[in-house]
Amino acid sequence: MKKLSEIPLNKEVKIVNLLGEGKHWFRLKEMGLIPGTIVKIVKTTPLNDPLIIYVRGYELSLRRIELEQIMVEER
Amino acid sequence: MNIALVGNQNSGKSSLFNILCQAKEKTGNWPGVTIDKKEGQLKNSSHYLIDLPGTYSLIPYTIEEEITCNYLKKEKIDLIINVIDATLLERSLYLTLQLLERDIPVVVVLNMADLLEKENIILNIKELEEELGIPVLKISCVNNLGIKELNEIINKRNVNKIKFVNQELSEKAIELRYQRIEKILAKSLVKQESKAKNIDKLLLNKYWGIPLFIMIMGLIYFLSLNTLGAKISSLLSDAIDYLKTLTQIRLTGIGVSPWLISLISDGVLSGMGAVLVFIPQLLILFFLMGLLERSGYLNRISLLLDHIFKKLGLNGKSAISFILGTGCSVPGILSTRSIENKDERELTISLISFIPCSAKLPIIILITSAFFPYNQTLMAISLYVFSILIIILFALIGKKRRTDNIFISELPKLQLPNLKNTIKDTLDKVLDFIKRVGTVILFSSIIIWCLAHLTPSLTFTYDISNSLLRSIGSIIAPLFYPFINANSWEASISLLQGLIAKEQVVASMKILSQEEYVFNSEAFSFFTPLTAFSFCVFNLFSAPCISAISTIFRELNNKKKAIKIITMQILFAYILSTLLTFFGGLIL
What we know:
The complex is a heterodimer of chains A (75) and B (588).
Chain A: E1 2-3, E2 13-18, H1 23-30, E3 38-43, E4 51-55, E5 58-62, H2 64-67, E6 70-74
Antiparallel strand pairs in A: 1-6, 2-3, 2-6, 3-4, 4-5
Chain B: E1 2-7, H1 13-20, E2 21-26, E3 38-42, E4 48-51, H2 63-74, E5 79-85, H3 89-100, E6 106-111, H4 114-118, E7 122-123, H5 125-132, E8 136-138, H6 147-156, H7 170-188, E9 189-191, H8 198-203, H9 209-226, H10 228-253, H11 258-276, H12 279-295, H13 297-311, H14 316-325, H15 329-334, H16 342-352, H17 361-371, H18 376-398, E10 409-411, H19 419-453, H20 468-476, H21 481-484, H22 489-497, H23 503-513, H24 529-541, H25 546-556, H26 559-587
Parallel strand pairs in B: 1-4, 1-5, 5-6, 6-8
Antiparallel strand pairs in B: 2-3, 3-4, 7-9
Helix pairs in contact in B: 3-7, 5-7, 9-10, 9-12, 10-11, 10-12, 11-19, 12-19, 13-14, 14-16, 16-18, 17-18, 17-24, 20-22, 22-23, 24-26, 25-26
């Protein structure tokens, strides 16, 4: 199990667990980031933060600090 | 029948609203495309349609979403049109399922259906309808497809109420909904490929991303403030002057009393002129910013700058507010509604007025051209840089130690903005601005005219140095002595008018100087380069104009906090300019 922030660009992984809690993480789950979901990092920004992930057909930007709380495993 | 348009942001609800409705009764205001409710009547029918702010879920996360969720809870709605971006079906269905859990008929409308082919997505509409149990329509607002069929469904009024009973609470409910979505899509979504936009490789590029952003913003400001906007503004200004002279001649000719002529010409027309001259630049600025927003680039800007803003305790979305603030504080402040974190939002609101808005430009131009003719551009830029440094300083001071700084932002597709809709939106915003700001400026112009033309014994006079205005000015003039080094009622009156509108400062100085070169006149010849610079600084950093102040009060919803912010700004400006004059005097 690794953190999503450690996964290289364009590699598909499956979400295992989300460590964060509270209102913000609830919204992230509502946007489709739940255990079992396939995600991959597709774009970077100049300062490497935030990063953009591809999930359930759309692109979502998340800061590193959030990506570090999403645990994934390789498919 | 009351119909509500509900859907994610950027699903094209507003475009659909524009097509379905004949005329807007209430219009949306500032960036975010839909921030306030838009209501109207359906064409050729008595049904009412309301366009609710975009939301991802019926459990609200931002202020905008609260508007939608509360409306759906409290108001009587007969039909919901759930607008979905056809290319983003999977995520969009989450809201759809939540809507179906309510007791209101729903029709699903797959907007932007013309893009399905382009993105290699094939949808089986029949299966989708069967799985959801409600009508599903493919439409394209841009191409006007499917609208007729939608109107037929609305008028037939035979949409069934399907209720998906969902007993599970919170997180389990989320899982159940997505399980259901996956089941639905397994049957109705035939093919899909994820495509990486190559343009983003350039826009978000490690080396080119930020320089490109600076170039684009520079171009926008160049076009709106310098070239096109300025040319049209000066034409308008000449036209107004001509109109004033014409009015004076005509009215004198028919024997209207002098004071009334003066009221109309110097009060009303001047006041209107002050607002109108502003308009061309605002039009171009709003239009270009509208293009930026609708193309999806504005979102990318907030990503580029997020990291830096995070260090200041702000949000990448604050960048957009500040950028808008360079045009006018009011749209900048209103755009902070998209910032979820309350502290970040409040900090952004309190800092926006430090950025020189376009109304402060006349002051900057007047002073730099008079006192620093050889390095005018340099001095002007240095003032902007100085403001940015002050903002950074205050941001760091005001930054709260928070552990849950979060930045969730969907990256919208990059697309060519729809010109018609952008123009419509721009006109709406400018009209709203005229209504809101225009009435304030007009009203205060008349009041100032009255004060300037009435003596303390309340008789009419042409001599402004005999007027009530002068009396008031003389009383408060000593207050400003520390940084302008003179007891000038003219300067203090002009400064005070900055509270009404920043452009008024220069307008007032021009009137009071009664000659072409303001600083050659008797009234203002006491200014030195140093005191003029301090005067400029005071105007830039003190409380903003009354429109911005009232917007701050409204958006913060906390009188005490708002008063605190305004007072601190005035105090800061005062101390800063006094220190400048003092230390500058020692050094130079």
